[in-house]
Amino acid sequence: MWRDSVLVAGKDLRIELRSRVVLHQVVPVAVLVLVLFAFALGPDRAPMAHAAPGLFWMAVLFASVLAVQRSFALEAPEGARDGLRLSGLDPAGVFLGKTAAVALEMVLLEVVLTAGIVVLYGSHIRSYGSIVVAGLAGTAGLAAAGTLYGALAAGLRVRETLLPFLFLPVAAPVLLAGTRAWQAALGIGVGSAGDPWVRLLLVFAAVYLALGVVIFGPLQEAS
Amino acid sequence: MSSTDPAVAPWSARATWIVRGLGIAAALALAGTIWLGLWVTPPDQVQHNLVRLVYIHPPIAWVALYLAFGVAAGSSVLWLWPRTRSRFWDRLAVSAVEVGIVFTALTLVTGSIWGRPTWGVWWAWDARLTSTALLLLLLLGYMAVRRVPADPDSRARRSAVVALVAAVDVPIVHFSVDWWHTLHQGATVLNANLSPTIHGSMAWTLLLGFVAFTLLFAWMLAIRYRVEVLSEQLQDSALEVALRERWAEGKGPLTDPGGALA
Predict the structure, then answer these.
(1) Structural domain contains residue B3
(2) Is residue B59 part of a domain?
(3) Backbone phi, then psi, for A41, in 5-degree steps?
(4) How many folded domains does chain B comprise?
(5) Do the beta carbons of residue A146 and residue A65 sit within 8 Å?
(6) Looking at the domain assignment, is residue B169 inside a domain?
(7) How far is A149 from chain B (nearest CA, A)?
């Protein structure tokens, strides 16, 4: 399972390195979202800095939809999906590999976005440790849940519209907990502790990783 | 087509009578709840006549959040489990989700009607309200997957996965929203009315309300199940009917397709 997941993740990342779709399209879209949010909030810095954690996670959420769509668009042409299925790779490994590739791309995107909120919104990071842990846990959860739904919607004609509709409500706890954890780490809000929220993100990630490992096999048969 | 026609009856004559009895019992229990709730029970000292919503709102929420969702999630798991896989569970799951959508929407509507005079707003970002709204979106997502044309087996597989993932998400959503923001008067209202210090008739009416809406759910579930079976049969026979119509077009008069079919 682990070897297969490394193979699949390597494949997806190599395609990304060569095509640079996430780097040249998804990351700019996420930065654009930050700029547009600033327009929506007005030119004052205070509301922006206050809303920064929530806006960061909103941008991450939208970008993760795009990253997941891209991850499954890779296998759309020339029957690559059937090829992957026939390759004899462990479905759990395929799931973990695709999740890892999406998560890695998202981490890169989050680094850019973090720089974005610091520069554009004037956020001050108080605790680097907790934003890194919260960011990684949230990303793992988003990537796992997104990959599950991506596989579910893959191959359907309505996949572009179906995926956000299914995925975003499920990802709502990540938005909530991620925002709260980051608010604590950026020193916003009245003495809210970030730790329980980080734990919630870890639980979310663990639940969806486990669910994906179990369910990805039967799901692949459906498409 | 009568329901006893063997070609279209998804269940035996005895089951038909049971479902009919269920419907009558639900109607009687609902009528009893309305009578007790509107005429027999006294108004509350604090909430006055608004308190009468307690006889319908919690029972509807119970059906939506526990019964319908529980049946949908349980039957989806039973479908996914290879040993218990049968189309029965798939049909039961879709029936429960669709009836559940009606009850979840009703939960939000009755809660909103209650919230406006007591909280002063139609919508409060209360934990239960928010997680119920998310649940409604998850259920609508299930129906969206259901409507994507596919062969029955992969459609069943896909929707079972959606139901399972949603079922896992609901407790997480609930906990996170609960921590996030809580006005929470719901639980105290319910507990206050169930406590022995209140007027006896109110507790009985609430209990009858729970029975009535549970019966109504069971009846609607059975009817929706039957609709699912019938629509499957219709789909299966659609091609055959179309072929016969096409064949009849060549021979018989076009103005009388019914006669040509017979």
Answers:
(1) no
(2) yes
(3) -90, -15
(4) 1
(5) yes
(6) yes
(7) 8
Residue A20 has φ and ψ, to the nearest 5°, of 55, 35
Q: What is the ipTM of this complex?
A: 0.84
Nearest to A180 by CA among B201, B116, B179: B179
B106: tokens are 């009703």
Residue A146 tokens read as 């997104």
- Residues of chain B positioned with their CB less than 8 A from the CB of A193: none
Nearest Cα to A116, choosing from A56, A39, A182, A204? A56
> Can you give the CATH number for the domain in which B204 is found?
1.20.120
Question: How do the domains of chain A map onto residue ranges?
Answer: 2-222
Instruction: Pick B254 or B110 by higher pLDDT.
Output: B110
Backbone angles phi, psi at B42, to 5 degrees: -80, 160
pLDDT digits (tens, 9 = 90+) for A114-170: 999 888 888 888 888 888 999 999 999 999 999 999 988 887 888 888 999 999 999
| Pick among B129, B136, B138, B176 to test the A interface (most A CBs inside 10 A) | B176
The answer to whether the CB atoms of A221 and B80 lie below 8 A apart is no
**Domain range enclosing B124:** 14-261
pLDDT digits (tens, 9 = 90+) for B21-42: 999 999 999 999 999 888 887 7
- The two structure tokens encoding residue A162: 């179906």
Q: What are the distances in angstroms from CA B152 to CA A120, B148, B158, B160?
A: 51, 11, 10, 12
Distance from CA of B94 to the nearest CA of A (A): 16
B142, B163 contact by CB (below 8 A): yes
> Which of B150, B162, B173 is closest, CB to CB, to A173?
B173
**Which stretches of chain B sit within 8 Å of chain A by CB?**
80, 134, 137-138, 140-141, 144-145, 148, 150, 153-154, 157-158, 161-162, 164-166, 168-169, 172-173, 175-177, 179-180
Using only C-alpha atoms, chain A has a radius of gyration, in whole angstroms, of 18
Contact B148 A176 (CB under 8 A): no
Closest CA to A198 of B131, B135, B179: B179
pTM of the model as a whole? 0.83
